[in-house]
Amino acid sequence: MRALVINCTLKPSPQPSNTEALAATVIAALKGHGAEVDVVRAVDLNLKPGVETDMGDGDDWPAVHEKLLASQILVVASPTWLGRPSSVAQRVLERMDAMLGETDDEGRPVAYNRVAGVLVTGNEDGAHHVISEISGGLADIGYTIPGQAWTYWHLGPGPGPDFLDDERGHDWSVSTGRAMASNLVHAARALGAMPLPAPPS
Questions:
Q1: Which residue has better confidence, 29 or 124?
Q2: What are all long-range contacts of 162-166, with beta carbons under 8 Å and residues at least 24 apart?
Q3: Could you identify which of 23, 72, 102, 138 might form a hypothetical disulfide with 77, taking C-beta atoms 3.0 to 4.6 angstroms apart as the criterion?
Q4: pTM above 0.85, yes or no
Q5: How far apart are CA 73 and CA 170, in angstroms?
Q6: Looking at residue 56, what DSSP letter applies?
């Protein structure tokens, strides 16, 4: 089983990423269930604006699209900015919009029989809003969102320290991330054993 984690931090490599740090705990849990995990730091790539799988010369999205199609599990990891997903997360979802028009050999949308979850960091309130926005977009595309397929770390409200700077709340975020990983893996296995059919015409 393969999983893909798309880190939608605004910080290019090699800057430390709080979102990456929390994602690492979920990645470890996924690997503990036998999943192979790829990680994409989207801000490091040239993801052109648009809603096509390939927006032309220099576009790095086609390689990410291949990883999506090779994975049964997707985790979109985003910081909260102004109470909303990062602009990078929005760009990723917009590029995934092209998948709405893609089907497999059996006529199923390509996101069918794949599961997705969401991970959020930030020092303000808004984690559940960000989870809802990203989960809603992924469900529209065709992903199955299992129960409690998310984790987050927020100390809000108000400005405060980052995940990497403060140990408060880590135990809850990590244990919730382990539950998230377990739910994603077991839901993916269930869909693998009894896949969704193509939508009725």
A1: 29
A2: 162/18, 162/121, 162/123, 163/18, 163/19, 163/21, 163/22, 163/121, 164/16, 164/18, 164/21
A3: 23
A4: yes
A5: 24
A6: S
Q: SS3 helix, strand, coil % of the chain, rounded to 5?
A: 40, 20, 40
**What digits encode the pLDDT tens for the residues 106-152?**
999 999 999 999 999 987 778 999 999 999 999 999 999 999 999 99
Q: Is 142 exposed, middle or buried (0-12, 13-18, 19+ CB in 10 A)?
A: buried
The number of beta carbons lying within 10 Å of the beta carbon of residue 190 is: 14
User: Hey, what amino acid is at 61?
Assistant: W
Q: Write b or e for each residue in 105-130: b if 16 or more Cβ atoms lie within 10 A of its Cβ, otherwise e.
A: eeebbbbbbbbbbbbbbbbbebbeeb
Residues with Cβ within 8 Å of 48's Cβ and at least 6 positions away in sequence, in order, are: 55, 56, 58, 59, 61
